[in-house]
Amino acid sequence: MKLYSFFRSGTSHRTRIVLNLKGLDYEASYVSLAKNEHHQADFQRLNPQGFVPVLETEMGTLLQSPAIIEWLEAEYPKPALLPEDSLGKEKVRAIAALIGCDIHPLNNKRVLEYLRQIGLDDAQINTWCAKWIQDGFSALEQILQQDSDREKFCYGEQVSIADAYLIPQVVSAQRFKVDLSAYPKINEIYQHCMTLEAFQKAAPEQQVDAF
């Protein structure tokens, strides 16, 4: 397998976490979003949207991190990153969707570039990012508090896809200087996950293309 990614991309980060949790080897190919390499013709032939990550496999080229992660779960079911029961699966996927659909897209590169184009300065852009992260994290904190069986992870007693989504978003929140003290459950999960090798190896600062 070959993963095209950018060290600071949250979608790439969550995909690296899942690959590591599954214990899968992959070749890394680095696409610099900072240098707009995702707009180059060679990469756009892989993904016409110009987004990372892209995962090349023997079965074909896979796009969009939620679909890639679900494919990895189906093709490499051990260790499982979804609960066995249908309600548990829904809860894990709901947390992942809260982060992946309702928080992350409002903080990504193309949105921030557009905000700059219409005249917002860095302080205003950080305020924009913080608003959507805080809204999402406030809701997520309540959801996490409702799970009486939660043991240092987003759901239940085992690491799941939800954790793979959460940790990159916490890293993004730190980058945008969001005060995370209001979210003790989220902080607890972040601190615990970062003791695990799969999360440590996936961290942005550990990537070859980090700068």
Rounded to the nearest angstrom, the distance between the terminal CA atoms is: 25 Å
Numbering strands along the chain, what is their spatial order in the largest sheet? 2-1-3-4
The tally of helices reads 9
Q: Which structural category do the helix and sheet elements fall into?
A: alpha+beta
Explain what you see.
There is one protein chain. The protein has a four-stranded mixed beta sheet with strand order 2-1-3-4, with helices on one face. It is built from nine helices and four strands, in the order E-H-E-H-E-E-H-H-H-H-H-H-H. The model has no long low-confidence stretch (mean pLDDT 96). With 211 residues, it is of the alpha+beta class.
List keywords for this structure.
single chain; 211 residues; alpha+beta; four-stranded mixed beta sheet; 9 helices; 4 strands; globular
Write the layout of secondary structure elements.
Blueprint: E1 2-5, H1 10-21, E2 27-30, H2 41-46, E3 54-57, E4 60-63, H3 65-75, H4 86-102, H5 109-117, H6 122-146, H7 161-175, H8 184-193, H9 197-202
Helix pairs in contact: 1-3, 1-7, 4-6, 4-7, 7-8
